[in-house]
Amino acid sequence: MAQFELHSRNLAPEQVAHSHDFHQLILATCGVTELAMEGQGGRVTARRGCLIPSSRHHEYQGDGSNRTLVLDIPVQHLATLEKGSEIERLFDKPRFFTVPPALNQLTHALAHQLDQCPALQNEIAVLLLRALYMYLQDAPKQTADQLGVRCISERLDLERLDAWLDQHLADEVRVEQLAALCALSPGHFYSCFRELTGVTPLAYVQRRRLDHARTMVRHSALSLGHIAMLVGFRDQGSFSRAYRRYFEISPSSDR
């Protein structure tokens, strides 16, 4: 039996309130989940994660189109890890934290790996936990360049861009439109966006379309052609090819 339980979930738009006797790490690759714990409220997005200590009451409500990694961490198992006591201190109190581009990219990759090899959930969970520890340990030591990236992040406001994209997945999306939302020139926006996320704006749009498409493929009865149209592909063939390249499985097999 795995020591750590890691699941990729779509959190539904129903409010849930509970507590549990294990720590929990929440990360998202797309979508939004509203979460509150002990008077502290916030949103879990691709840019913002959450640490929930054991036995702390919390409430959450997803948007129904999120893709969220939920890692359950039994306190007694932390002692089996290298630097387990230091990792334990991450859960001294409830907290939200900024997810840097490198951790976001790792989250995407590990979510994909979890889908392909669910039997490896414990190994994937340990890797994710160690990566988080290294990031949070290094966060207070940011260089001036890293602080500059944070300023770019605040100017770009990816949460606002994500919300806009989710309303326009079926439409043609141009870099000029995204730049205008951030009050930046297209050239400046392009370079800032790539520095922040590690991908081009249009590659980011494609990834978001496919993440939403996978939710519909797995959790709806819509035809693949209809899903392709809803997320902005001109036909089912181009959608299926892009889906297979990104997820390494066809949408019909994934369903």
Give the terminus-to-terminus CA distance. Answer: 27 Å
Which percent range describes the beta-strand content? 15-25%
General shape? globular
Tell me the Rg in angstroms. 19 Å
For the record, what is the CATH homologous superfamily label of the largest domain? Regulatory protein AraC
Overall description:
InterPro entries: AraC_XylS_family_regulators, Homeodomain-like_sf, HTH-like, HTH_AraC. GO terms for molecular function: DNA-binding transcription factor activity; sequence-specific DNA binding. It comes from Vreelandella aquamarina. Keywords: DNA-binding, Transcription, Transcription regulation. It holds the Pfam family HTH_18. The chain has a 5-stranded antiparallel β-sheet with strand order 1-8-3-6-9. A 4-stranded antiparallel β-sheet has the order 2-7-4-5, with no helix packed on it. It is built from 12 helices and 9 strands. α3 runs antiparallel to α4. About 5% of the residues have low confidence. It has 2 domains: 134 residues, Jelly Rolls (Sandwich), CATH 2.60.120; 102 residues, Arc Repressor Mutant, subunit A, CATH 1.10.10. Helices cover 50% and strands 18% of the residues. The chain is of the alpha+beta class and 255 residues long. The relative contact order is 0.12.
